[in-house]
Amino acid sequence: MSQSKHIVCPQCGAVNRIPENRLADNPKCGKCHQPLFTGHAIELDAAGFNKHISRNDIPVVVDFWASWCGPCKMMAPAFQQAAAQLEPRYRLAKLNTEDEQAIAMQYRIQSIPTLAIFRNGREIARQPGAMSTGDIVRWVQSNA
Ligand SMILES: [Zn+2]
Predict the structure, then answer these.
(1) Counting Cβ atoms within 10 Å, is residue 10 exposed (0-12), middle (13-18) or buried (19+)?
(2) Residues 46-81: pLDDT tens digits?
(3) Which residues have CB atoms below 5 A from the ion given as ligand 1?
(4) Burial of 67: CB neighbours in 10 Å, binned 0-12, 13-18, 19+
(5) Strand 60-65 relative to strand 15-19, pairing
(6) pTM here?
(7) Rounded to an integer, what distance in angstroms lies between the CA atom of residue 103 and that of residue 54?
């Protein structure tokens, strides 16, 4: 019997139950019928952040960034390429710390970019500083 995973839809926020062995078959949201995974990191606001880190059964890797941060912009393409490699075992997401300062303060984000991995609502790893695609993939796979 295959295990099911709860996957939060990046489009509408619905929580889908997907059999684990179907995760790689381009599953679609049962509510809005959009693909649950597109190979791209998703943008989160505060409400989306809380929902995705707490309701997904897959680890959520969050890139805390800001538009004025040069290293953040340099790392952005690497993070997108990492998303293409790590989905659907992981959800990759970006949180703009200028728009969502309360979240950045709550999680004591001291410097950006900072990557953090969340599982079942809890932070399980954190890494400040820009990384290459290969470094991101290795770091995520060795921590979650
Ligand atoms: Zn949906």
Answers:
(1) buried
(2) 999 999 999 999 999 999 999 999 999 999 999 999
(3) 9, 11-12, 14, 29, 31-32
(4) exposed
(5) unpaired
(6) 0.97
(7) 14
Residues belonging to the chain: 144
Report CA(35)–ligand 1 centroid distance (Å): 8
Paired with 117 in beta bridges are: 61, 125
> How far is Cα of residue 33 from the mean position of the Cα atoms in its chain?
20
- Integer Cα distance of 128 and 11 in angstroms: 28
With H, G, I as helix, E, B as strand and everything else as coil, classify residue 90.
coil
Whole-angstrom distance, CA of residue 81 vs CA of residue 89: 14
Tokens of 3: 């295990």
Query: Which amino acid is located at 37 in the chain?
Result: F
Averaged in consecutive runs of 10 residues, what is the pLDDT profile of the chain (144 residues)? 90 97 96 97 98 98 97 97 98 98 96 97 97 98 97
The two structure tokens encoding residue 109 = 């984000």
Pairing of strands 4-8, 60-65: unpaired
Q: How far is CA 32 from CA 12, 14, 28, 86, 92, in A?
A: 7, 8, 8, 24, 20
18 C-alpha to center of ligand 1: Å? Answer: 13
Structure tokens at 19: 């059999």
